[in-house]
Amino acid sequence: MISKENLIRNSKDFSNVLKSFISVAYLSAPFAYSKSGLVLGVIVSVLCAAINNHTCLMYVECKREVVRKLLHRGREYKNTEENKEFLESKVTQYMVAKFVFGSGAFYSVMVLNMFLQSAISIEILIALAATLESFVPELHPINNHHADSHVISGEVVEPTLGYSAVLMLAPIPFFLIALMIQRIRGIGVISFVGVFLLLTSTMIVIIYFILQLSSAILSEIALFVWETLPICIGQMVTVFEGIIVAVSVERGMVGNRKLFPGFLHAVLFIELIIINMCGVIIYICVPNPHQILVQDLPHHTWYIVVVKVMLVISLAVSFPLQLFPAIEIAETLLCKIKKLRAKETIPDDPELTEINEEDIDMLKGLSNEDPEMLPRCQRYLVRVSLLVVTLIIGEIARNNFGYFMAVIGATAMNAVVFFIPPLFHIALEYGRVSRFVICKDISLMVIGVLICVSSLAVVISSLVEGRKNNI
Question: What is the pTM assigned to this prediction?
């Protein structure tokens, strides 16, 4: 029988894994399925979930192998249980990169993660602006019609998002206050509220469209759409964004890390069910969906208004929580630059793959009052600068939420899923694993290249064609 203490710990660890994978990408699932067709959309989502599951565990396996090798050579850390637990809780994907490929890889992975966290923040910002705009029908003509009108006519009318820029600026005071908090990620209640409201509102929307299935015109539903399939693939790669923090979540499960694979399988299964329910059911009801599903919801139904309010709250609290890791990385990198400049010369590093106390201290975050850390005014400047950058990019991409997701999935997220884990695995395990495993890792990287090239090509082609049609 599980004790109360273990039950609480298991629940907390499972919720942390779940929170890391819950994604605003659900809001664009119908658009993704319209680009692939019903059958191909389901197949792509299942394959992406399976690959994500495999590469997440590969990340964790690489981290554990680095810990094993550090203890085995016994230079920095003696091979004791105490040191093993210490390293298990401290070694990050950045340190794995340094151990395998040196300091350059250490900083490259940090910058990549900063970019991804910022990109996901931009997705949240665009979705927030669109949701706010949907409250005002006269600013969004397409939404003057009930969602059922899409089912009957199948008419495609491009949304007019002329006021999204203004609405995107509305929450800025809240964002500024939130970003000034030193350790906003420590406010677990806020994170829980954001995830709970997003899941609840998504399920209500799904139930609403289930009730509309009787009016669906099945002849308008495509089962296979090969021409724009790469757009769906790019979006689906982005959906399972928890891989960015998989190692961080696992190393935080002190005394419970053996359960991480099981929790991961369960969470990915839950997310797969949600994304397929959103994609399949709403696409059947709305054969020509917009890039954000809130634009396909009616205005007159009171519970839909409640759903939109829940979405606004969820997205508003999620944005600073999502942007804060990128801010921490930026502050950390600037702090490192400051230290190097203070020494005037870069110290010799005879063995670039050493992991030492300085690396661990560097990644503890900048919440303490160490005088060598960035002054408060410089921190605030970094935070405001990143906020401004996300606002500008969000304004540029606001009419192309689904395409923006596909580009991120085809590039940065592609690298995190299809390149970095197999590359680390080959470097750490070469000579110890079979040729089949090596071929499998190489195959993942080849698939990543194909996804990158095809998705970018189709997205660019679609955007150019859409611009020509609007002229």
Answer: 0.85
